[in-house]
Amino acid sequence: MGTLAPLQRRKLAGRFALLDRDGDGTLTEADVLALAERICTRLHPPADLQRQIHAACAELWAHLAEADLDGDARVCFEEYALAASTHPDGTVVRLAEAVFRTLDTDGSGSLEAGEYAVLLEVMGGSPHETAAVLARLDFDGTGTIERQEFLAACLDYFVSTDPTAPGNWVFGTPAAPGPPGAAGSHNRKL
Ligand SMILES: [Ca+2]
Ligand SMILES: [Ca+2]
Ligand SMILES: [Ca+2]
């Protein structure tokens, strides 16, 4: 898909930067495993959820590896952009489910502002953006993010190529435009 519109490319660059944990401009298995490790280390989910998060990230890498056309075990941005239909829904949903259950520490079935702020902090966004993010994702106006709202937002973020999708804000304000590794994506690193 070499004909990606600039806005779609920008959206893709933000997603790429989120996954490129060491910020070297390519995605490797280590980047994706580091994402699982960071979530588990910072949020301390119970063992079953940790397994689910690691398994979903392993699936994510298996899928990404298919985009490694030159076989160097790294997925560069161009390879990633070519495979822009990208992440399978099932993998995203499994990861999002496990993260949702991890974040919902009071077991209320929804993410209140304080619980959501933790996600932003862990993913490299700013907890100060919580209210703005909630305003975009809280479709039913309850003031909290229910499971379906969170899953929809994660699917928007990882699967949709629509640069205006509300889910683009799931981890905070989308990164400024620019190629991976350039200024604007540095706030997403480990
Ligand atoms: Ca490659
Ligand atoms: Ca809750
Ligand atoms: Ca809601």
UniProtKB/TrEMBL annotation:
<dbReference type="InterPro" id="IPR011992">
    <property type="entry name" value="EF-hand-dom_pair"/>
</dbReference>
<protein>
    <submittedName>
        <fullName>EF-hand domain-containing protein</fullName>
    </submittedName>
</protein>
<feature type="domain" description="EF-hand">
    <location>
        <begin position="7"/>
        <end position="42"/>
    </location>
</feature>
<dbReference type="InterPro" id="IPR018247">
    <property type="entry name" value="EF_Hand_1_Ca_BS"/>
</dbReference>
<feature type="domain" description="EF-hand">
    <location>
        <begin position="91"/>
        <end position="126"/>
    </location>
</feature>
<dbReference type="InterPro" id="IPR002048">
    <property type="entry name" value="EF_hand_dom"/>
</dbReference>
<dbReference type="Pfam" id="PF13499">
    <property type="entry name" value="EF-hand_7"/>
</dbReference>
